[in-house]
Design goal:
The protein is of the alpha+beta class. The protein has one domain (5-97). The protein is 26% helix and 27% strand. It is built from 3 helices and 6 strands; from the N terminus they run E-E-E-E-H-H-E-E-H. The strands form 2 sheets. It has a 4-stranded antiparallel β-sheet. Strand 1 and strand 2 form a beta hairpin. It is globular and about 45 Å long.
Length: 117
């Protein structure tokens, strides 16, 4: 169980935290949750920086889905797919530290359908 968790960065799509007790990074991104050791985090960051967005968007231009950029996992039949905006958002979480980590999010950042009666 993680006891000393600190938030390293976050945005409206997710956040990156680190537990100094477990020496584990926790990446929450939309509906994805990943845990990394230090070496795994460095490898993941390196992999993310080398993704060729234009290649994947052009090679999958006939795909009707809006998410065309795959990130393959160790499990052969499982891949995570992103669109350009999501990938940039993921990169922002991985590579940028946010000075306003504990600042409240704005109303426009909440992904919720609101019905006014």
């Amino acid at each position: 169980m993680c006891h000393k968790v600190c938030t390293l960065s976050k945005n409206k799509d997710g956040q990156l935290t680190y537990c100094s007790t477990c020496d584990i990074y926790h990446l929450y991104f939309n509906n994805i949750y990943l845990e990394f050791k230090q070496s795994e985090m460095e490898c993941f960051k390196k992999f993310i920086t080398h993704i060729n967005i234009e290649y994947w968007e052009s090679s999958n231009d006939r795909v009707l889905q809006k998410r065309k950029i795959p990130i393959q996992t160790m499990q052969q039949n499982l891949a995570m797919v992103f669109n350009r905006r999501e990938l940039y958002s993921l990169k922002a979480i991985l590579f940028e530290t946010n000075d306003k980590i504990d600042a409240p999010i704005s109303l426009s950042e909440i992904d919720y359908v609101q019905y006014l009666n």
